[in-house]
Specification:
The protein is an alpha+beta fold. The protein is globular, with a radius of gyration of 21 Å. The strands form four sheets. Strands 4, 5, 6, 7, 10, 11, 12, 13, 14 and 15 form a ten-stranded mixed sheet that branches. It has helices at residues 8-15, 21-30, 58-68, 108-123, 168-174, 176-181, 231-245, 281-288, 294-302, 330-339, and strands at residues 3-7, 33-38, 43-48, 77-87, 95-104, 132-138, 146-151, 156-157, 166-167, 191-195, 201-204, 208-209, 222-228, 249-260, 266-269, 276-279, 307-312, 315-319. The protein has three domains: 3-68, 2-Layer Sandwich (Phenylalanyl-tRNA Synthetase, Chain B, domain 1), CATH 3.30.56.10; 77-269, Phenylalanyl-trna Synthetase, Chain B, domain 3 (Phenylalanyl-tRNA Synthetase, Chain B, domain 3, 3-Layer(bba) Sandwich); 276-339, Phenylalanyl-tRNA Synthetase, Chain B, domain 1 (2-Layer Sandwich). Helices cover 29% and strands 31% of the residues.
């Protein structure tokens, strides 16, 4: 299971509540985070289950505890500003999804958490970048719309943590990330890039981002992308990143982006809501060995941020939070009822 590191003071800041060590040791396992250690400096190290990637950073933990402890609703402002990106055709990794988060208030710890979430997703759901890769960029340093396309190996930009421009070919052989992940695209005649309308290169997926669009503590607005071989995965990754990063937004403002495919179909992200699932309360009670009534189930489900769509004696219809990619059927919902 992925090992995640967060700071106690940062969790408390996001949660709006001071927690004792005993409370942390009690609460975190209830949301599928097994605490390994808490240092004297307040660093909490925990293992998150592989099926809850939304818990791979402190923002997801704070959001989950907020609901679980009844400290308030998790509300986000989702806005359509007409933002578009253009997928010009990258046959080996044909899909891209994007989203924007605005009005951020960042510091060193929040940037660190953002990068941790990105890398933990890369190592797990993205299959070490083979299935998908993620980028986060300072939106105010670029000029939309963005273009996802193939470029000649001689194309140049300054990779992250480097001080000079390199060709795409050089990046594969002369950077740490290039040496680690270059094999994914090494045999391609041309390489994928993400650029803006003025030609500024944001990244070379799935290898490395650009130094010119680096996210810093001064960043107020970010654009997130995920590219890969599966449309659902890239939307999932952008959705998790957007909702977690939005915990740092003063208005929790997330902006949709439409990615126009080569055939003019549209991949829109992030996901506004999760799947809707019909539940038979009698089956839930049978599986759990309980005798809960509808109202008790609703109360328990709200601890995990479910929205109740329909409430009848023999049927309960719920909508899953958009960042919960693990919930696929009523049995998953029953598990959350049991944990609550």
């Amino acid at each position: 299971m992925p090992v995640i590191k967060i700071m106690k003071w940062d969790l408390e800041r996001l949660l709006g509540k001071v927690l004792s060590i005993d409370e942390i040791l009690d609460y975190l396992p209830r949301i599928k985070c097994e605490v390994d250690s808490i240092s004297e400096e307040g660093e909490i190290e925990y293992e998150a289950t592989h099926d809850r990637p939304d818990l791979y950073s402190v923002e997801g933990v704070a959001r989950s505890l907020r609901s679980f402890l009844g400290l308030g609703e998790n509300k986000y402002q989702l806005v359509d500003e007409g933002l578009k990106a253009y997928n010009k055709g990258v046959p080996g990794r044909p899909y891209i999804a994007l989203a924007v988060v605005r009005d951020l208030d960042l510091d060193d710890e929040s940037v660190k958490q953002m990068m941790q979430l990105q890398e933990k997703l890369h190592m797990t759901y993205c299959r070490r970048r083979r299935k998908a890769s993620i980028g986060v960029y300072d939106l105010d340093k670029i000029k939309p719309p963005l273009y996802y396309e193939l470029a000649d190996p001689s194309t140049k930009f300054t990779p992250l943590d480097e001080s000079r421009e390199m060709t795409l070919k050089e990046i594969l052989t002369n950077t740490v990330r290039g040496k680690e992940y270059g094999y994914i695209i090494a045999n391609w005649e041309k390489y994928p890039i993400l650029r803006d309308s003025e030609g500024t290169i944001l990244s070379m997926p799935p290898i490395i981002n650009s130094e010119d669009t680096r996210v810093t503590v001064e960043t107020k607005n970010v654009i997130i992308d995920a590219t890969g071989i599966d449309p659902k995965t890239v939307i999932d990754m952008v959705t998790i990143m957007a909702y977690n990063i939005a915990e740092r937004s003063r208005g929790k403002k997330i902006v949709f982006v439409e990615a126009i495919m080569p055939d003019n179909t549209v991949l829109k992200a992030p996901r506004e809501k999760g799947v809707t699932i019909e539940i038979d309360p009698s089956k839930v009670n049978e599986v759990l060995g309980t005798s809960l009534d509808i109202e008790q189930m609703i109360k328990l489900l709200k601890k995990f941020d479910y929205k109740i769509t329909n409430n009848q004696k023999e049927q309960l219809i719920v909508t899953v939070p958009p960042y919960r990619v693990d919930v696929k059927s009523w049995i998953d919902v029953a598990e959350d009822i049991a944990m609550a």
